[in-house]
Amino acid sequence: MAYRLGVDVGGTFTDLLLIEDGTGETFRDKVPSTPHDPSVAVVNGTLKICAKAGIDPADVQLFMHGTTVATNTVLTGTGARVGLVTTDGYRQVLHIARSFVPGGLAGWIVWNKPPLIAPLECTVEVPERIGADGSIVTPLDEGALRVALERLKGEGIEALTIAFINAYRNDVHERRAGEIAREVFPALPISLSSEVLPEMQEYERALTTVANSYVRPRVANYVRNLKAELNRAGMNGQMNLLRSDAGLMSFEKAQDHPVNLLMSGPAGGVAGALWVCGKSGYRNLLTVDVGGTSTDVALIENGEPRLARETECGDLKVRATSLDIRTVGAGGGSIAFVPDLTGALRVGPASAGAVPGPVCYSRGGDKPTVTDANVVLGYLPEELLGGAMHLDRPAAAASVQAIADTLGIGLAEAAHGIYSIANETMMGALRLISVQQGYDPRDFALVAFGGAGPLHANALGRLLGSWPVIVPPSPGVLCAFGDATTRLRSERARSIGKPFAEIGNDAVAAVLRELKAAVVRELLAEGVPETDQEIGFEAGVRYSGQAFEVSLPLSLDGFETGGLESLAAAFDKEHERLFTFCLESDRELVTVRVTALGKASAIRLEKLPRGDGDPAAARVRDHMMWADGREHPAVIYDRARLRAGDRVTGPAIIAEMDSTTVLLPDHVAEVDDYGLILIRPAAAH
What is the structure's pLDDT at 615? Predict the structure, then answer.
């Protein structure tokens, strides 16, 4: 039998999902994350779930992994010391940047510019120049380059970036400089901007390539160690990492282009949500993934997740394709506190994480968290992970009581305050991804997952008016499911930078065919036959004079006859939707992009047996929970015993191995054929 394994590393737990390709049988598990070395939890979890399934690790043919190593490297400032080689006169390219200051009006007054990831003392200039048309204006001075590289030896650099002006048009100087640099620094990873991001705009290209160098040594070390440990455990199948755009890349390629992994972790959940909910016909979704440390949200329209051409990670914004995911510091481990200055309750962004964790985990945590508040409110039963984990309710109550005493309110009111503030923070992120983008959240279903997502799902649906609220099967390991069902992906782009009037349909079609051939070859090298590849085309268009472009899908078929005209009409329509107006200005084709996706997984989502609508067989015991200002009698149900068509009336708790769903009063949950829990207001039934 052939198996595939999806592994997602979170701040608190590492989730694993093992799938048998032939039958679709699944095995799931969670192990505590190991922040000091994430690979320890990955290997331990892999051995544990293989033992649970009664198989040898050698039976796992496909290993897919969402990792936060690149993300955490940026957020903690623990990347490599990067040297930068650029064109004479461009030494301050990273300093000048785009003159953009985050925050509201006059934000520059209080904003401290973060340190550059390629310090000025590690940046050198070299005489050379490529023109905007790709011609050689000034030949590369190889002698000056060698002198500059020798000077960088004294700076103790750990990675090197070469980013020359207009190298996206002609990479001859960068390639030669790379050859010389490898002679001077044979042991250093060297990144060329023409390979990492062959697109116009020298600042974005230089910054993205420097970011690639910044995380490259740490990611490469992690990948090599993980592969060695998995091989030692007996696993020798194909190993892939999840990219920020929800595609897959091989371990080998990830070592060279880790900048594409900055949003690797959250992308798995979006991919999993789309795959599962699509089976039941839901194609417009707001996704909310609540883990132990943070909440990640995204929007899916007509079965397609929104893509962003820039990836933000802390203060760093790079030009790398990713799912348009917004993250806020609100999760199960978010710590509640009352600042002396304001006396107002605050929740997060600081988190108890996996170590020591919430107080109720009995691992040494002593600060109240959102998870502790959920325990006090009765939303979390005292047994988790199928009884493998016991929650200390008295300890949780004692920690939240400290907040209640400070505020002069009751225990339940304090716990509900913590819960409500966390919900408002999550809703703020959901509004950013929907309302701020011109979408009405009431036109979307809300799908909640992650270990803590279903605890907050019903409340978030009520705040946003998004119905139904969907809780997929195994929500706590859905990110791992997304990893396990994701396809290999290759992407190539070419900068055009010309008004429509100055280019022809034939010329654009020729570029698209060239890029298509490149991505097809790349997936062929990964073992994906051309017949199993799915090709997509996209263009970035703007009005002349604009500083940003709008991304639009396009088709190669028939592009020679009216492709640009159709693209112009689509651009005007999308621009009006986004900004409520169009201009008479000339349209400019900024970039074209081609992607290739490998063969989709043949995994099936099995239908549940039909029930009679009565969930009595799944009833576990009576329970008490707090909602709407008072305590309510409720019932705990075992999700594994619910059948398709069963209807659960709130207030209720639906428990399963990896997560817990809270059903508030005056709401009804119905189980559909594929096991999705669909929550709606009782008045809607």
Answer: 93
